[in-house]
Design brief:
The complex is a heterodimer. Chain A is an alpha+beta fold. Chain A folds into two domains: 121 residues, no CATH class; 165 residues, Phosphoenolpyruvate Carboxykinase, domain 3, CATH 3.90.228. In chain A, 23% of the residues lie in helices and 30% in strands. Chain A has six helices and 16 strands. In chain A, the strands form two sheets. Chain A has an eight-stranded mixed beta sheet with strand order 3-1-2-4-8-7-6-5, with helices on one face. The longest helix of chain A has 19 residues. Chain B has four helices and six strands. In chain B, the strands form two sheets. Chain B has a three-stranded antiparallel beta sheet with strand order 5-1-6. Classes of the chains: A alpha+beta, B alpha+beta. Chains A and B meet through α4 and α5 of A and β2, β3 and β4 of B.
Chain lengths: 318, 109
């Protein structure tokens, strides 16, 4: 099946450039990692829906944006209608050297590098019930690509703060990120997001990379709170088991784990080399975090071995 | 899958990138959204797989670094090279391409 056929009635008519009829005249800014991100051309209802979904992160457009994106109208009849019950949603993507095309449920979008990264989103939703989800799906991709430009990475992960440091729990779908997040909350830790988190180089160019909270969560995490950045404590590759066990990961294995959990960009043949280079820098010996494989039991007692490791090896764990 | 023997000349597939990290290598294939991590020997093999030297010549280079019997090393390298070829990281160089590399003077091993 070729690009767009799952979602669009006429994939051949996919917009060739970021232009069209704007939904309205509202602009807003999102204070997300790699930003600020300016979104323009929204209707009042769309702007209200974005504000409702992202809370403190959403503010009137003011500063010079790092990334600009525009919203355009697209007829509902241009999208195929189908039953999505029991269906795992994934976007259609088509990557080229200077552009990325996206198609999804009531969503057609593109990212263009001209040479700065910019985005465009076409949707038939005027700001109704589904608009927040459509907008967020576009934002996730936009942020993933922007983070690569600033030396970082978007990671499919659970981000948990404890001892003043951020622990990133990684693993494929079903590895236990939400289970670990729930157990961490019960143990008194803070969950940034149980779904995706941003990892960025240290702000001063030296020291530990930072985990930056994103409003993209699954069941646990805070969508509407303000921006929060926490020094990275450790990277943990999850594996479900009958008991708890912590074993070191080599830097190469850690790099491979992070790469596998970097959605969208890791399968883009034009930008995955840059992603790999970013990860190598983030894991460089001078700044690199400790990395472990965590085999854990569902009863949620793994924090006792992590706490013990932290107390034994601080600052070596950092 | 072509048979790999000491005379086989292997090269990295054009869509493969690799980066040495400490004693290991991270291998990136454009066709997959994940990377492969190989050990120190795998990293050396990736470096040696330049599409010019037959595998037997790799053994000469590797014997300088590894204190093992030649036959044992050859067996390990053949097995490892076979795995890397099976997973799409390495590929045998076709004979015409070898002739071009060697200016048409290369004889069969």
């Amino acid at each position: 099946m070729s690009f767009g056929e799952r979602f669009l009635r006429n994939p051949d008519l996919f917009p060739a450039r970021p232009s069209g009829e704007a939904w309205g005249e509202r602009d807003l800014e999102l204070d997300l990692a790699g930003g600020p991100y300016l979104f323009s051309g929204l209707s009042p209802a769309q702007a209200e829906a974005v504000g409702e979904r992202f809370g403190e992160l959403c503010r009137p457009a003011a500063a010079t944006p790092a990334v600009a994106a525009r919203l355009f109208r697209m007829a509902a009849g241009d999208f195929l209608a189908f039953d999505v019950r029991g269906w795992e949603y994934s976007l259609d993507r088509d990557a080229a050297p200077g552009a990325l095309r996206l198609a999804g449920l009531e969503l057609a979008a593109r990212l263009d590098w001209r040479p700065a990264l910019g985005g465009a989103l076409w949707t038939p939703d005027a700001g109704g019930e589904r608009f927040g989800g459509i907008f967020e799906n576009f934002c996730r991709v936009l942020v993933a690509y922007r983070l690569v430009e600033v030396g970082g990475v978007l990671l499919h992960s659970a981000g948990v703060v404890r001892h003043g440091a951020a622990f990133l729990f990684l693993g494929p779908s079903g590895a236990g990120k939400t289970t670990v997040s729930a157990a961490s909350l019960a143990a008194g830790a803070e969950v940034l997001s149980d779904d995706v988190n941003a990892l960025l180089p240290a702000p001063a160019g030296a020291g530990r990379p930072e985990v930056v909270k994103l409003p993209f969560t699954g069941d646990l995490g805070d969508r509407r709170g303000g921006r929060r950045a926490v020094p990275l404590g450790a990277v943990l590759w999850l594996e479900k088991a009958d008991g708890d066990e912590l074993s070191p990961l080599s830097r190469a294995a850690a790099l491979g784990s992070l790469f596998a959990c970097a959605p969208f960009v890791n399968s883009d043949p034009h930008r995955r080399d840059a992603l790999l280079a970013n990860l190598a820098r983030l894991l460089a010996p001078a700044a690199g975090p400790a990395a472990f494989k965590l085999r854990f039991a569902r009863r949620g007692s793994f924090w006792s071995i992590l706490d013990e490791k932290w107390q034994q090896s601080t600052p070596a764990l950092c | 899958m072509a048979t790999i023997d000491p005379g086989t000349v292997l090269r990295r597939r054009s869509d493969v990138r690799f980066r040495v990290v400490d004693d290991e290598a991270v291998v990136l294939r454009q066709s997959a959204a994940e990377v492969m991590v190989v050990n120190e020997l795998g990293a050396r093999i990736l470096d040696l797989a330049d599409g010019r030297r037959p595998l037997a010549e790799w053994i000469d280079a590797l014997l300088a670094d590894y204190d093992v019997e030649r036959d044992a090393l050859l067996a390990d390298v053949l097995a490892f090279a076979g795995e890397l070829a099976a997973s799409g990281v390495l590929e045998p160089v076709p004979e015409p391409a070898l002739d071009a590399v060697a200016g048409g003077k290369r004889s069969a091993p």
